[in-house]
């Protein structure tokens, strides 16, 4: 088999890249390790920056999003019984869209089916060969039979645990990592959201987040121990703990109900440089991870896709490789700013086991500054809605 671009990974990065390249007449094959249903069963991000919303429109997959999403002009932050809003629209004239990553992925799969582009599910043992030469190829096993695809380029969109990043030799790659000493326990419940915007809560018992997917589907998180297991947390224990971390007026309004999904995610900051090796380009979680506090994971994957799509189109249309040659540097410049925002909001809102009394005073001062200082709020708003591509 031969194609122009092999995309390893059928998550949002791979699917968005595949759709945008198809619309420019560039042929791709997506190799996905799991089944489509497995990929669609993952509950992850919920906030789309304007850049990703624009790309969904460019990809022709924004119709359902436009019908079903929420437009949020700001977000709320609480600390003990205080609650304040950061009004993005008033401060910088921008907003974010609330639309689950699962729906983004579903819309992209449907669009890929509609154009008849090739996606191979349950592709096992994917391996990248000769990425540093001019005739790279990918091998994999399908139904027990060894397969090979020759191509011009490979996009490594296979997430943090994929094989693409590990294809780049250790002496070429530099990994930067910070592992946070806690996780997020998240639940999905068929209950009305407690507030009309998100609430990021700093409390003496730890962080909590009140989010949503639609008017009848809510997404909540509480900071938990890394050693916690989902089975350690009954629904009742989760709701009790969430209420204790929210201002009383909010807790009193909280509508609880059975969880329809419950999972624990570890928190880490991670960046691997460079994001290119020969004809292999890393994209999304394959190259970088952020703690979900700043809602940047899916959105930094989107900006990678933007830069890589631009580079590939320029190569195939104008035989100009400048966009590909500058891909890694351009993508990393934006990623590091998103890493900093995610790291700083995580430090501001979570309780750390080794925090001293002084550290807690600094954390409180930072939140109060964000509460009362318009400059601090403007910086927060600019980063939350997404820096320009
Ligand atoms: P993904 O990991 O989504 O997709 C990679 C795909 O590659 C997967 O389908 C995988 O099956 C496939 N794959 C892996 N190895 C392969 C191989 N060897 N061969 C073929 N295919 C392979 N971001 C937010 O903004 N907010 C959140 O609240 C949030 N919560 C998260 C919770 C969890 C548990 C996780 C893991 C991530 C969360 N994220 C969140 C970040 C998340 O949304 C990612 O940023 C987003 O999924 C990135 O998309 P991809 O780069 O496509 O990677
Ligand atoms: C979510 O709705 O899953 C969500 C929203 C904002 C975040 C993280 C997760 O910062």
Automatic annotation (TrEMBL):
Q: Which GO terms describe its biological process?
A: benzoate catabolic process
Question: Would the keyword Oxidoreductase turn up in this protein's UniProt record?
Answer: yes
**Annotated FAD-binding domain residues:** 2-342
The enzyme's first-digit EC class, named in words, is: oxidoreductase
- Source domain of life is Bacteria
Q: Which InterPro entries match?
A: FAD-bd, FAD/NAD-bd_sf, HB_mOase, RIFMO-like
- Keywords assigned: FAD, Flavoprotein, Oxidoreductase
| Molecular function terms, GO-annotated | 4-hydroxybenzoate 3-monooxygenase activity; FAD binding
The keyword Oxidoreductase appears for this protein:
yes
Kindly list the residue ranges recorded as spanning the membrane. Answer: none
User: So what EC number does this one have?
Assistant: 1.14.13.2
PANTHER family in the cross-refs: P-HYDROXYBENZOATE HYDROXYLASE, TRK SYSTEM POTASSIUM UPTAKE PROTEIN
Could you tell me what this protein is called?
4-hydroxybenzoate 3-monooxygenase
């Amino acid at each position: 088999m031969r194609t122009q671009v092999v995309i390893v990974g059928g998550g949002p990065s791979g699917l968005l890249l595949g759709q945008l390249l198809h619309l420019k007449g560039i042929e791709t094959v997506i190799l996905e390790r799991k089944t489509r249903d497995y990929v669609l069963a993952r509950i992850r991000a919920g906030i789309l920056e304007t850049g990703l919303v624009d790309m969904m429109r460019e990809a022709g997959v924004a119709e359902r999003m436009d019908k079903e999403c929420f437009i949020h002009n700001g977000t709320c932050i609480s600390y003990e019984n205080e609650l304040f809003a950061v009004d993005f629209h008033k401060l910088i004239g921008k907003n974010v869209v609330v639309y689950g990553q699962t729906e983004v992925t579903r819309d992209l799969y449907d669009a890929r089916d509609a154009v008849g582009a090739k996606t191979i599910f349950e592709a096992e043992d994917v391996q990248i060969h000769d990425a540093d030469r001019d005739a790279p190829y990918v091998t994999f096993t399908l139904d027990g039979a060894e397969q090979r695809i020759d191509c011009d380029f490979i996009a490594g969109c296979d997430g943090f645990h994929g094989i693409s990043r590990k294809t780049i030799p250790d002496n070429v790659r530099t990994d930067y990592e910070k592992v946070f000493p806690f996780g997020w326990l998240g639940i999905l419940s068929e209950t009305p959201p407690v507030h009309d915007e998100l609430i990021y809560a700093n409390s003496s018992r730890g962080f909590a987040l009140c989010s949503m997917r639609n008017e009848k589907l809510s997404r909540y998180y509480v900071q938990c121990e890394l050693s916690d297991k989902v089975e350690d947390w009954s629904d009742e224990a989760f709701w009790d703990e969430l209420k204790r971390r929210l201002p009383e007026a909010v807790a009193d309004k909280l509508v609880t109900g059975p969880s329809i999904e419950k999972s624990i995610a570890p928190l880490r900051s991670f960046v691997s440089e460079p994001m290119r090796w020969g004809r292999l380009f890393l994209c999304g979680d394959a190259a970088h991870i952020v703690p979900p506090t700043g809602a940047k994971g899916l959105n930094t994957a989107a900006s990678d896709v933007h830069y890589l799509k631009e580079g590939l189109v320029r190569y195939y249309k104008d035989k100009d490789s400048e966009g590909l040659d500058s891909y890694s540097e351009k993508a990393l410049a934006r990623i590091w700013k998103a890493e900093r925002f995610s790291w700083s909001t995580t430090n501001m809102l979570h309780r750390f086991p080794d925090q001293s009394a002084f550290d807690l005073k600094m954390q409180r001062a930072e939140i109060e500054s964000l509460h009362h200082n318009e400059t601090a709020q403007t910086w927060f708003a600019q980063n939350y809605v997404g820096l320009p591509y």
